[in-house]
Amino acid sequence: MPLDPLLREVASELKTDRLLLRTPRAGDGARVHEAVVETLDALRAWPASLPWAVFEPSVEASEIYCRESAAAFVKRSSLVYLAFDAEDSLVASLSLHSIEWTIPKFELGFWCRTSRQRQGLTAEAASELKRYAFDRLGARRVEAFPDEANAGSRAVCEAIGMQFEGTLRNDRITPDGVSRSTSVYASVRA
């Protein structure tokens, strides 16, 4: 019988050469809000992938997100990590979500604040999270579903060794009714 997800040991902190990935905590909302506001135009470019970005950001909404993410982490239903640099500045948010523990399978999601993009930080953090999913959580599949036109997210997937598996054509729709297609990337282990 598989281990109940609530009994699984999952690290609340992971480290890379340049980053500390840790689970959100109560009080992180202001920092997340600052990063979201800085990056809002870029996030809103992908409303079918990031529907939460179409809403007006607030410190309160970001604080609720942090607290809900902390609760989901305890329940093992979603594993969200905030990535901080050596100066303790919030760089990115990443997650393993849509978890199917019976396989185990995880969807990898991420976004990086505008001022820290194109420095390899998102790929560094995503690579560590993918490695952790395979090495410590027993993943057989880690997948990502960036918008087909999102070259930056697709580049991160490719940089961390995920294989392009195909395109789901017209599988999403934006709030204003525009069809979007999704690229499917995955890494697998037998």
- Residue stretches low in confidence (pLDDT < 50, at least 5 long) are none
**Secondary-structure class:** alpha+beta
Q: How many strands in all?
A: 8
What is the N-to-C order of secondary-structure elements (H for helix, E for strand)? EEHHEEEHEHEE
Biggest sheet strand order reads 1-2-3-4-5-6-8-7
Largest beta-sheet characterization: 8 strands, mixed
Helix count, DSSP H or I runs of 4 or more residues: 4
Distance linking N and C termini = 19 Å
The CATH class designation is Alpha Beta
- If you compute it from the alpha carbons, what radius of gyration comes out, rounded to the nearest whole angstrom? 16 Å
Shape: globular
CATH architecture assignment name: 3-Layer(aba) Sandwich
Report the mean per-residue pLDDT as an integer. Answer: 95
Which strand-content bin applies to the residues? 25-35%
Task: List the domain count as a whole number.
Answer: 1
Helix content: 25-40%
